[in-house]
Request: fold
Amino acid sequence: MTFRAPSSSSPAGWTRRRLLQAAAATGFGGVSWGAHAHAAAGAVVPPVAAPSLPVAPVRGSAAPLSSFLQGHHTAVQLMFTGCSAVCPIQGALFADVQRQLASAPPDWRLLSVSIDALSDGPAQLRAWLARFGAQDARWRAAVPAVNGVDPLFDFLQGRASGLDRHTSQVFVFDRQAQLVFRTVDLPSAQEVLSALQWAARRRPPG
Reply:
């Protein structure tokens, strides 16, 4: 696959100040920033279908990741509840995005996917979502099985070095459960919103 910048309706530039302000508002202003290796940011050309690897949600039975994405425009982040470095800032980011989605179409969603299959179960994910005021209609969380973490990393190209072991990029999927856009590391809420808007407006080839 290749990556290219979208057209004039592409996401706006990101700033760390806004994320730091959001982090401070939720009590995480002292969190340190780490360097992360990540896949190239921009439009994913051609789009790539989400894998069928099972993930377990906070409520209900495990189902293929693609089933959580089908029929929605979804922004996905990688995280784990025991993370004390960048994940709290990621939670603050999605909280800010959720607030700004108040008047957005109901099919615009947020999904936090844990990479810690050994420690994160429904109770841990439920507490993490509650910590950031997640509303079930907009923002959900799930975790793959232990043997699903590596395939998830490989699909998203989401590995990183350091304390978090995962990129802080946000991955945007269209209604066909196809990966269509990757943000830069630690995007602003506006960039995530713009990426969702771009995904909703794009016309699939053919």
Q: What stands out?
A: Residues 1-38 have pLDDT under 50 and may be disordered.
